[in-house]
Amino acid sequence: SDFALEEGRLGHTATSNPPLLRHRMMEQPSRSKLPEDRPRRCTDCLFLLAFLGALGAVGYAAVYASKNGDLARVLYGQDYMADLCGQDNSIEATGLPEFIEPRDDELTLFEKLHPGARISSRPPSSRVRRGMRDHTSRSVLYFTLPAGELGGFAPVAVCLDECPGDHPDPDLHAIDRPGTWVCTGKYASGPPPECPDGGGDLPQCVAYRNAYFLRAGAAAAAACADPLQDCDVCFPPYPTTRVLQMCLPQQDATLAAMADVVAAVAVLGATVGTSGNPDYAASAYEGLEGGSGDGSTELSPQDMDELRRLISSLPHMAVEDLSVAWPVLAGCSAVALLVGFAWLLLIRFLAGLMVWITLFGLAAADGVLCWWLWTRQQAMKADVRYGEEGDFTSQADAAYISFFVFVSLGAIYVLLVLCFRKQIQLAARALAVAALAVGQLPALLILPLASASLAIGALCGGGMLLLLLASCGEIAYGRPGFGSLYLDSRTEYLLLVAIVVSIWLVVFVRHTQHAAVGGAVTKWYLHRNTDRSATRCCGGSAVALGLWHALRYHAGSIAAGSLLITTLKLIRIAFFLLKRTFYQRVSRGLDACGCNGSNRLAAMCLCCISCCLKCVEKSLEALSRYAYAQMMRSKRSFCPSAAEAVRLLTTNLAGAASLRFVAAAFLFLGKLLVAAGCAFLGWRILVQGPP
């Protein structure tokens, strides 16, 4: 909703200064020279042909991917025996021999996207032995140890039919329950038939219990790491959540289970290498004081946080947090949407008053913050811990310094408001006109929602095409996990084309929205007193006409503007990849020249270049909005419209700059008020719940 309001303000500004525009109209000797009386013709047809050609290339890539791709290669993971989960890996089904010589003369797709993983993911042997198992009913990939190496064993990737803990009654503490262990080799299907629960004194049952990873020994660990051997080892399950075809650690239960595992390793570390009895796990649990059934009672909050970070990577933690907090996030988003529409409605009737209320409210908020910082630092300095505890003392000093910082910022802010009060009044009137446009053309609010839906659809379609193209590659056997595929040069080029065109299509959709809104608001603003047709059907006629004109006559100009922004985005993406590669080389002790040590000057230059590219992209995006509004009024192509927009802006530089700055600041403050209020509400709900 606030985007439609901002577009209304942009349409008001981009159609030039209203008094200047009326003065020019009065000076025209004939109405035939007015832009409104020119016939509308197709513009920038070459760019439209290029855009259609790009879409055709994407269509070819889709046909190629549908014929040669297999989503199972990217959707299903590879286990420790080079078998794909969810697939029949027998020789008859795959046509592959038992032993495979993997290719190591080029990088896989995963390695090209993650340069830091190029060394660690290399197979340790020139040959790989396939397990040739039928995993049709085992579709999810599970790593036996979420916290890395433990007890001499590295995490082993196995295929399961369901994730441990992905059922109503998960067994959280199964170290002493052999029937629930996750095993490899001949025990992959579970305990021997003679002892379904893993107990008993039969030799095969004792052998099964001795396969527990804390008793298996170094030979079993080496066999699991050798791509030419299989291993018969069992691990205790930890609670997980299924995300697509992978089992991710479950936040609310994995900490306690892993604390038990670590405690068992500590207790049994001196005895597991010798004989010992089969009930070692149960006796170990009886020896643990205060943590046998909980695992978290002996851990401080800092230990819990460190253990959680050890268990989960950043994407895992994001999924875990969303699984817990999504109801609160959804509720806060709905509240933010409703408050945003209410804020827009208030602007419709009280635009000028709300501008001043927002500006003075921000000054009042700064004053309240300064008062809180002053009282806080006084209380902390009066505390006995001040000067004794380093963290407490630094916090008190930080509050003291922050008080003077915010006092200075508040004083500068008040002076700016007083100095630019006339420009603020002008901005308030412009916002009132923009709010009037949104009030008389409420159909404008549909365009942002429609364009966002189309953009999301384009992104989803592009993502599916990328998956299909990636699945055209050859599987890199011997590298457990996902994404280990070799791609030929043709597929890589098609991947690049799909990425470029997907970004171009998303930007094209957004720019079509800008042009349609600019055309509708321009028509309403210039003819609001003489032609009432623009407000028919809640402004739907003007919006539909603007959208029709944008696509029928100016699709080429929109393609040109969107191609310019897409090119800048691609440059920024390429530069981001270059910067990430540089930082990874520095983290390994190599600078950009291959010398030892880090290069701070190069890192500083990279940050400056990244900031400049971002500024150029944002400036051209803002200019393109003005250019589309001018294009819809003058009925000319993109470049002349952009040049005219630049000329009008430079002619009225001071007024346009102050107007845009004040209006943009007001819109930003409104967004900040709504977002911060809803975020604070969600934060209070989350922190009051159980950890």
Strand count, sense and closure of the main sheet? Answer: 2 strands, antiparallel
Q: So what's the overall shape? A: globular
* Count of helical stretches: 22
Low-confidence stretches: 1-32, 116-124, 167-173, 266-297, 590-597
Query: Cα distance, first to last residue?
Result: 36 Å
The number of E-state strands comes to 10
Radius of gyration: 32 Å
The residue-averaged pLDDT reads 77
Instruction: Please state how the strands of the largest beta sheet are arranged side by side.
Output: 1-2
Summarize this entry quickly.
With 691 residues, the protein is mainly alpha-helical. The longest helix has 69 residues.
Please give a handful of descriptors for the protein shown.
691 residues, mainly alpha, two-stranded antiparallel sheet, 62% helix, globular
Can you characterise this structure?
A hairpin with a 2-residue loop joins β7 and β8. The strands form 5 sheets. A two-stranded antiparallel sheet has the order 1-2. With 691 residues, it is mainly alpha-helical. The radius of gyration is 32 Å and the shape is globular. 33% of the residues are buried. It is 62% helix and 4% strand.
